[in-house]
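Give me a protein, keeping tokens residue-aligned:
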Amino acid sequence: MKVSNGYVTVNELPTKNRLFKFCEKKIDQWLQTRSDLEPLEGPVEFSVSFTEDDESSQVSCQTEIQLGAHIYRGCDLAPDTQQAFMHSLKRLHAAH
């Protein structure tokens, strides 16, 4: 499965290409490690939203991956964007 559609934002603004590529690569790796996912014919879509909190020096990350009719969501906090994203990816669960 290959990620085909997605966006990454930081404080509701589109982010740099480097962070987008990092997220896209890690989502693709997540998809490859999930043997419980059904083969898909349609596109895999994702959104990753980071919110930086100056007061707590933490970054919040909300990740959503749509696989056909299934949606997986995860959220977490960390000191930087990459850590926050990796934590949210580990916490992905099926949304009903």
